[in-house]
Amino acid sequence: MNVLVTGGASGLGAAVAERVAKDGHRPLVIDRHPPKPEGGGWQHCLADLADRHAAERAVHCLARGAGGLDAVVTAAGTDACGRLCDVHAEDWERVVQVNLLGTAAVVRAALPYLKAAHNGRIVTVASTLGLRALSDATAYSASKFGVVGFTRALAAELAGRVAVTMLVPGGMDTAFFDGRDEQYKPGPDAQLNRPEDVAATVMFALSQPPGCEVRELLVCPSREPSWP
Fold it and tell me: What protein family is recorded (predicted)?
């Protein structure tokens, strides 16, 4: 199984790519940075998902090089914390470009390959903040609420042809929080999921038999502060 993973050089994306490889499949990674565990069947293409044309080229390059796609996992994501009036417009818009428009661009480019595959699958990555909004997160919530709507509509559109799953993860112990102001970082007592555990749920969705779909997965720490 050829599995395209965006954001596969770090965080959840890297955990998904590693799990794909561990289970005997081939990860195809799109990221702005090369994945660390190169070799062993891994393929990657450098691209910024804020650039639609670059994202599309990366999908086609990897799909053609691998002889097709069986699944896509859109794990790439970014954030710009702060009140709307305090976040630079360019930074705010980049969050939406990467998280929402980048997701749509990758899925759109991948669809011909997924339709040609037997049991083609898509897993998008939303967030608990795509279901419950918080202050100082207008860009991230807007992008992830968009992913929720996009994915639900896509599942209806592709029913019977390509399986669609929406993953809704809570807080994870990744570098996603690095570089933020202290007020926007998890506290010392924060309980965060391991990305490896969340990746296992992605693989569960990808491993369902033809005709069976896991439509939505909410995976969070048992004491998730952003949900419910």
Answer: Belongs to the short-chain dehydrogenases/reductases (SDR) family.
12 token code pair:
């959840």
Mapped onto helix, strand or coil, the DSSP state of residue 3 is strand
**Which pair of structure tokens corresponds to residue 83?**
């009140």
β-bridge pairing 2-6 and 26-31: parallel
Q: What is the CA radius of gyration of the chain?
A: 16
* Total residue count of the chain as it appears in this document: 228
Share the mean pLDDT of the chain: 91
Q: What number of other Cβ atoms are within 10 A of residue 178's Cβ? A: 8
Q: What is the pLDDT of residues 199-210, one digit of tens each?
A: 999 999 999 999
**Percent of the chain at pLDDT above 70?**
89
DSSP state of 99: I
DSSP 3-state of 121: strand
Q: Dump pLDDT digits (tens) for 57-80.
A: 999 999 999 999 999 999 999 999
pLDDT tens profile 157-216: 999 999 999 999 988 766 665 666 666 556 666 778 899 999 999 999 999 999 999 999
User: At which residue do the structure tokens 């608990």 appear?
Assistant: 128
Q: How far apart are the first and last CA of the chain?
A: 35
H-state helical runs in the chain: 11-22, 52-66, 89-96, 102-116, 138-158, 195-206
Query: pTM surpassing 0.85?
Result: yes
